Amino acid sequence: MIRVLLADDQALVRAGFRALLDAQPDIEVVAEAADGQQALAQVAELRPDLVMMDIRMPVLDGLAATRRITENPELASVRVVMLTTFELDDYVFEAIRAGASGFLVKDTEPEELLRATRAVVAGDALLSPGVTRRLIAEFAARSKTPEQALPLTGLTDREREVLALVGLGLSNNEIARRLVLSPLTAKTHVSRTMVKLGARDRAQLVVAAYESGLVRPGWLG
Fold this sequence. Notes:
It holds the Pfam family Response_reg. The chain contains 10 helices and 5 strands, in the order E-H-E-H-E-H-E-H-E-H-H-H-H-H-H. Strands 2-1-3-4-5 form a 5-stranded parallel sheet, sandwiched between helices. By secondary structure, the protein is of the alpha/beta class. Helix 8 (about 170-180) packs across helix 9 (about 185-195). Helices cover about 50% and strands about 15% of the residues. The chain folds into 2 domains: about 1-125, Response regulator (Rossmann fold), CATH 3.40.50.2300; about 150-210, Arc Repressor Mutant, subunit A.
């Protein structure tokens, strides 16, 4: 059972998401919060698998709340997906750097919401491939070449290859085909790379790929 906490200052938004999520046999909404401070208290108490966090909320905004969750080692198992009104909200990119696993536009299709929920909790992908690539493309367009590339010491040559492909938005199966590997081997390489870089999920691997200079803006075809 995937346990979800909804954090949004609009009751109607929370009600709509709850109705959709609770209707699924494998998803349960365990709590709702109207601001970031409430969300933090409930996360500490309930330890949900996933927090759907609005960016703009009173008392404590979603970005600050996300950072506090992802910086707390006791909450390492909690994933955060940001909710935003606009696909290319500036705060989205800060949220990814703060440790959020991805983002959803509030008017996303129900099927997309459910796929995203399951994918993020499984650690399989940032979100759906389409949303992932749009996010990466915009992140790349806004990124500047790092003045000093982040070190990737400890990664094997194969793991660097895999990191670059994750940075380009490829799924495990796509990486396997590109490198002529089995999907399980590709997944193992991704997992080892995450461990070595201390990344919570694929979203942070994408950031690492760009900020290390391994992948540069404009490489998306």
